[in-house]
Specification:
With 371 residues, the protein is mainly α. The protein has one domain (2-366). Helix content is 67%, strand content 3%. The protein contains 13 helices and 4 strands. Residues 365-371 have low confidence and may be disordered.
Length: 371
């Protein structure tokens, strides 16, 4: 049984999240002001959109904090959210293409990227399924259903196309299944199948191969395949210890593509230097610590898996983004949670934190009575 402690949530996690969002809003304005002014005639355009996304995200957090009854692992909620995610991912394919991709739902001028929601719905579904079938989880007939759901979701994201997010969904699912009790040997066959699938999609698009080649040999073609990685390194390297000061980045002047989205950490490193970069990474470290603590303190195994899965989803995505910016991995188009411009990413990242804060309000009723 759960004891609910209204608004007695994890304060350090909440403050950490606020800090990351504030840094994100500042850096979005700094990195996009010139672009917004030329494209929309309003230098504050992207910052205002980011603030709207943050306001919506914090509203979701407040709603999640105010819900007293347990609902995260209720079958109706879990399968309802999963079905909604699948429907929205399918609907994306019928939407008009944006930048030669079909990643967004567009309704009344508002764009939403369902693949961001997929990370949350997948974690909740797998946590529920693992707990509900814990006694037979390692049987192939039990694993067939979640693996089929995962394959369908990954395929929908791959055909958008969004290779990086699809790869992350597969990795995140394996992590949650392992935490839920699936033995390592059970990952061999599905792992091989997914490896073949991702290999096919990797070689089916020349730009994906160019990204890999640009990462492996960025110095050989600095004006071509290795351009974005090289410019990102230049931005980070030129920041030094304390940076060139806020708003003084030169790489955001159309030298570094996607400066306010996927490569915002490079602009942060240039303008705030090593100090700003370390502070940002430390905040993600704090998020990891508090998320795992919430997971360990959760009153039942299902909520433990939810908290762990949500935490790893946020932190792994942050590490992937930062590794690309630093030239430690090929470009994937993965946003930096809380910082990169994008209302869908920010809203879903804050909703993820809201789930963690909701779980942090739960306590074992028997343990509470004994205390």
């Amino acid at each position: 049984m759960h004891a609910y402690r209204r608004f007695q949530f994890d304060i350090p996690l909440f403050l950490c999240t606020v800090g990351l969002v504030v840094i994100g809003i500042i850096m979005v304005f700094s990195s996009s002001g010139l672009l917004a002014g030329e494209k929309y005639g309003q230098p504050f355009f992207f910052m205002i959109q980011q603030i709207i996304g943050a306001a919506a995200g914090f509203a979701v957090i407040m709603v999640l904090l105010s819900v007293k009854k347990p609902f995260l692992l209720r079958p109706v909620f879990v399968y309802g959210l999963l079905a909604l995610t699948g429907f929205l991912l399918t609907l994306c394919l019928a939407m008009p293409s944006i930048a030669h991709t079909n990643r967004w739902i567009v309704f009344m001028g508002i764009r939403f990227q369902p693949s961001e929601l997929a990370k949350i719905s997948l974690v909740l579904f797998l946590a529920y399924y693992c707990e509900a079938h814990k006694n037979s989880l390692n049987a192939w007939k039990t694993l067939a259903f979640p693996l089929s759901v995962l394959a369908g979701m990954v395929l929908l994201v791959l055909v958008e196309p969004d290779f990086g997010t699809a790869l992350m969904l597969a990795g995140l699912a394996c992590l949650v299944l392992f935490i839920g009790g699936v033995k390592l040997r059970r990952f061999v066959v599905p792992g091989a199948a997914f490896l073949v699938l991702f290999t096919i999609f990797l070689f089916s698009a020349s730009y994906r191969l160019s990204r890999v080649q640009g990462f492996l040999s960025s110095g050989e073609d600095p004006q071509g395949k290795g351009y974005q990685v090289r410019q990102s390194k230049v931005a980070v390297g030129s920041g030094g210890l304390i940076g060139v000061s806020l708003g003084q980045s030169t790489q955001k002047l159309y030298y570094l593509p996607s400066a306010h989205t996927d490569f915002i950490f490079a602009i942060l490193g240039e303008e705030a230097g090593l100090v700003g970069a370390v502070i940002t990474v430390s905040l993600f470290g704090l998020l990891l610590w508090r998320g795992l603590k919430i997971s360990m303190d959760a009153p039942d195994p299902g909520l433990k898996m939810v908290a762990a899965g949500i935490t790893f989803a946020l932190v792994i995505q942050a590490l992937l983004n930062i590794s690309v910016v630093l030239g430690l991995g090929p470009t994937k188009g993965t946003p930096l949670p809380f910082l990169s411009y994008g209302r869908s990413s920010l809203l879903c990242s804050l909703a993820s934190v809201g789930i963690l804060l909701h779980v942090s309000q739960k306590k074992n009723a028997l343990r509470k009575a004994a205390g």
